Every structure is written in C-alpha cells, then in structure tokens.
Amino acid sequence: MSIGDHDVVGIEGGAPESAARCRPLRRDAERNRQVILRVAAEVFAERGLDAGFDEIARRAGVGVGTVYRRFPDRDDLVAALFEQRAAEVVASAERLARGEDAWASLCTFIEELAALQVADRGLRQVIAEAATSAERFAEVHERLGGALRGMVERAQAAGDLRPDVTAEDIPVLSLLVSSLSCGGQDPVLWRRYLGVVLDGLRAHRPAATPLAVGPLDDQRLHQVMIALSQRRQR
C-alpha cells in the first residue's frame, strides 16, 4: 500500500468522525433557534411586536448576536413565528375535522382560535404582518381550507350550519370575535359575542344559547368603545 493509499484511507476514515463533530453544532444551532422562537413568542405575547431583540436574547439566555445569526431582521423572526403558529392551527383544524360531530368541531375551532389570539397579544400582529405575503398566505389558506371545508360541508349536510356560510368565513369570524378582548383590557368579553356568532351560524335553533358573559352597562360600554377605537388607530 503506497503513501498515497494511506492518505486516501485516512481521508475516508476521518470523514465520518469530522461529520460527527459537526452534528452537535447543528443540533446546538437548531436548539438555539427553537429557544429563541419560544421566547420571542412569549415576549411578543406580552409586549407586542415592538419588543426588541435585546429583550428576547436576555430572556433566551443567548447573546444578541446569536439572535441576529438565526434571524437577521425582525421580518425573518415574524415569518418563522407565523409558520410555526400556522402549523399549530392547521394541525388543530385537521384534528377537529376528524371528529364525528362537524358542528361541534367547527364551534370548537372558532373558540380555540379566538382564545389563542386573545391570550397572545403578538399573534394578531404576527398574522397581520406575515399575511401581507401573498405566497405565504396562499400556502396556509390551502392547508387550512381543506380541513375547514370538510367541517363546513358536513355540518351543512347535517342541517346544523346555515347553507350560505363558507370555509373562508370561519377564520374571519374568529378574528372578529377575538378583537373584542379590547387589547386584553377585558379578557372575557369576547365570549359573550362568541355565543352570538355561533347562534347566528346555526341553520335552525330551538332556543337562544345562554351567553357566557353578562350584558354591558353604560360605563363598561364606554370603556369597550374607547379601547376598540384606540386599537384601530394603532
């Protein structure tokens, strides 16, 4: 065996060892990415998208340079969060679409999506910003639309859902209902209007569903209108 042969064997034998040394770095990078995404979601939920990378890095226990290496700018971070949350919403819709009672599944989806947006201050902003990408919106719409259309069509066939409602109406209704949390100032008010919306979706109803939250008095109505007006101006 020549020296050249030894060199070749050494290179071939050393490649797996070199690759093995690289794998932990890739795992570390992915772990850092997931930690940053989790912490960013928490920070944005509390403070909205105005929160800075310094705060995210501090709470994630990494240097701010690490955050910028994973996500060069805020748009990259928002896009990654949107994709992550969109995957969760699609998975929830697909799970519910397999339920036997399509009407109950549809109601649960509207409620769960609204509750998620009420609890997460930054989620609505993430959706609004990321949805400006036509390509990204179309991809999520295609994945979510299939599950929602299945629930809508089965609920209509069972005579539970009014026939003029489409799958496209469902996320819009959920978004409208969640907006009535007034930016978190009244975290349960939206449930009152959820009951109104769900009753309005029914094809036939023997009696009105009891509303989860009592009616507004004059003072509370004033507070709600101020909060909603301020939200529209942002």
UniProtKB/TrEMBL annotation:
What keywords are assigned to this protein?
Answer: DNA-binding, Transcription, Transcription regulation
DNA-binding region located at which positions?
52-71
Q: Which Pfam families does the entry link to?
A: TetR_C_43 (PF21597), TetR_N (PF00440)
SUPFAM superfamilies (UniProt xref): Homeodomain-like, Tetracyclin repressor-like, C-terminal domain
Q: Which InterPro entries match?
A: Homeodomain-like_sf, HTH-type_TetR-like_transc_reg, HTH_TetR, Tet_transcr_reg_TetR-rel_C_sf, TetR_SbtR-like_C
Q: Where is the HTH tetR-type domain?
A: 30-89
Listed GO MF terms? DNA-binding transcription factor activity; transcription cis-regulatory region binding
Q: Which domain of life is it from?
A: Bacteria
Q: Does the keyword section mention Transcription?
A: yes
Q: Indicate the transmembrane segments per the record.
A: none
> What is the recorded name of this protein?
TetR/AcrR family transcriptional regulator
The record lists the organism as Goekera deserti
> Mind giving the lineage of the organism this protein is from?
Bacteria, Bacillati, Actinomycetota, Actinomycetes, Geodermatophilales
